[in-house]
């Protein structure tokens, strides 16, 4: 875990999940490991923030199933603004997006909910390393 912590310095992550309690926990977890996390329960608001400050973010973590803009659609919009930016998708129910389609969009990782927080931190470290 020390590697992830060392690499966390000055890495800002945009976190989007419509489950407020989970969003708070995810942001606190990322902050605990030295990341700066900014969370949104509204994907439209998250996209506005990203468009305004896209250069500040090193990673976007988004839930797939949300009201309004779905996670895969959010990923596509984010990648239009910043091609190649790492995007992680989290999903508890994923019938519409397989690994092949996710890679075509530019999504680096799909994490299936529920996941262990340690696995999330390892995945974040691995995604930011590439």
Compact description:
The chain is of the alpha/beta class and 130 residues long. It is built from 6 helices and 5 strands, in the order αβαβαβαβαβα.
Commentary on this structure:
The protein is globular. Helix 4 (71-81) links the parallel strand 3 (59-63) and strand 4. The relative contact order is 0.17. The protein is built from six helices and five strands; from the N terminus they run αβαβαβαβαβα. Helix 3 runs parallel beside helix 4. It is α/β, with parallel strands linked by helices and 130 residues long. Mean pLDDT is 89; it is low at 1-7. A five-stranded parallel sheet has the order 2-1-3-4-5, sandwiched between helices.
Note the main attributes of this structure.
single chain, 130 residues, alpha/beta, 6 helices, 18% strand
SSE diagram, text form:
Blueprint: H1 2-8, E1 12-16, H2 20-32, E2 36-40, H3 43-53, E3 59-63, H4 71-81, E4 87-91, H5 99-105, E5 109-112, H6 117-129
Parallel strand pairs: 1-2, 1-3, 3-4, 4-5
Cα-atom radius of gyration: 13 Å
Note the overall shape. Answer: globular
Spatial strand arrangement across the major sheet: 2-1-3-4-5
Largest sheet: 5 strands, parallel
Number of helices: 6
Task: Kindly state the percentage of residues in helix.
Answer: 40-55%
DSSP summary, beta strand count: 5
Strand content: 15-25%
* Uncertain stretches: 1-7
**How is the quaternary structure best described?**
single chain
């Amino acid at each position: 875990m020390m590697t992830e912590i060392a690499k966390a310095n000055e890495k800002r992550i945009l976190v989007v999940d419509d489950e407020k309690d989970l969003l708070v926990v995810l942001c606190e977890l990322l902050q605990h490991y030295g990341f700066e996390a900014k969370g949104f329960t509204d994907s439209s608001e998250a996209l506005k923030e990203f468009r305004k400050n896209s250069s500040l973010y090193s990673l976007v973590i988004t839930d797939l199933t949300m009201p309004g803009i779905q996670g895969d659609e959010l990923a596509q919009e984010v990648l239009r603004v910043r091609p190649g930016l790492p995007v992680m998708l989290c999903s508890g129910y994923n019938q519409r997006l397989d690994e092949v389609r996710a890679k075509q969009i530019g999504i680096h990782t799909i994490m299936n909910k529920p996941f262990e927080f340690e696995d999330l931190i390892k995945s974040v470290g691995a995604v930011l390393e590439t």
